[in-house]
Amino acid sequence: MNISKVAGTNNKHKVLVYALSTCVWCKMTKQYLKDNNVEYEYVDVDLCSEEEKNQIRKHIQDKGAPLGYPTTIIDDQKVITGFRKDLLKEALEL
Amino acid sequence: MTTIEEVKRRAEADAKTFGYYLNPDPNFLQGLLEGLKRNEERYGYPSCPCRLASGNLDYDRDIICPCDYRDPDVAQFGACYCGLYVRKDVYEHKTELAPVPERRPAEKQMRSYQSVSTEVEAKAATAPEREELVQITVGKKKLWYCKQCGYVVFREDPPYICPVCKAKRELFAEIKTKVDFFG
Q1: Residues B30, B117: one domain?
Q2: Each residue's pLDDT tens digit, A37-74
Q3: Cβ contact (<8 Å) for B101 and A24?
Q4: What is the pLDDT of residues B58-69, one digit of tens each?
């Protein structure tokens, strides 16, 4: 799976974003993390193979979250669906 | 090949017809139009840029822009799921544009993932056809008619404006239907 890493000075948490390459809300999420110097990884799900898409679906659903994008997973525990600035801010202690 | 201008023209025409506005943020709008263009190029139809499409037209029909969920989403949240179509007050910045929760049923979303879509296909092959019919009638959709020109539409709420004569939403009335088996 093609996981892209974006460096940042804030690496308190492990942040993974499942995004779509065409989605503006996903772009806003990535930008928000970048603007706050948060180190994060992201995967553009629409560019993945069918097998990888299924792995991602399982990962999201195993966390009990809905299948929407962006899905931000923090420390492989907390899941935030959609560009929810308020929730990201709280979870990442920004 | 479709150009951004064509995608934009199409969206503008549709917004005008149904009384919506396009996202007022030029960068946001540009991003959405590029996403729609990209999807049209790779799938053959402009599916929602903010939803994972399967690439199978039969599964993606409901998320081809303007998607089946736009009307109730704009009415309830002021914008459609991706934010392309907005309500007048959002366009005029009187209401802030906020993320819209997903209204598309989970089972339809699941069809964009291959192993699941094969299961769905197998199920569909054995399921009786009438199931789909039942689903349509138990929805919240109603028949509405424009009191000014007679245009009839089947959806949850009447449109903001009549696409034919431009009458306001208030001029739409519900058509009450009753099925009487005894004639």
Answers
A1: yes
A2: 999 999 999 999 999 999 999 999 999 999 999 999 99
A3: no
A4: 999 999 999 999
Q: CA A81 → CA B5, B7, B100, B115, distances in Å?
A: 32, 28, 11, 23
The total number of structural domains in chain B stands at: 2
Where in chain A are the domains? 4-91
Q: Are residues B167 and B121 in the same domain?
A: no
Q: Please give the Cα distance from B68 to B147 (Å, whole number).
A: 24
Smallest Cβ distance to A83: which of B99, B113, B116? Answer: B99
Chain B closest-CA separation from residue A22 CA (Å)? 4
Cβ proximity of B89 and B28 under 8 Å:
no
Instruction: Looking at the structure, tell me whether residues B33 and B123 fall in a common domain.
Output: yes
Burial (CB count <10 Å: 0-12, 13-18, 19+), residue B140: exposed
CATH fold of A4-91 reads Glutaredoxin (3.40.30)
CA B183 to chain centre: 37
Parent domain of B152: 128-183
Extract the tokens encoding A15.
């942040």
List of chain B residues whose C-beta atoms are within 8 Å of the C-beta of residue A69: 50-52
ipTM of the complex: 0.94
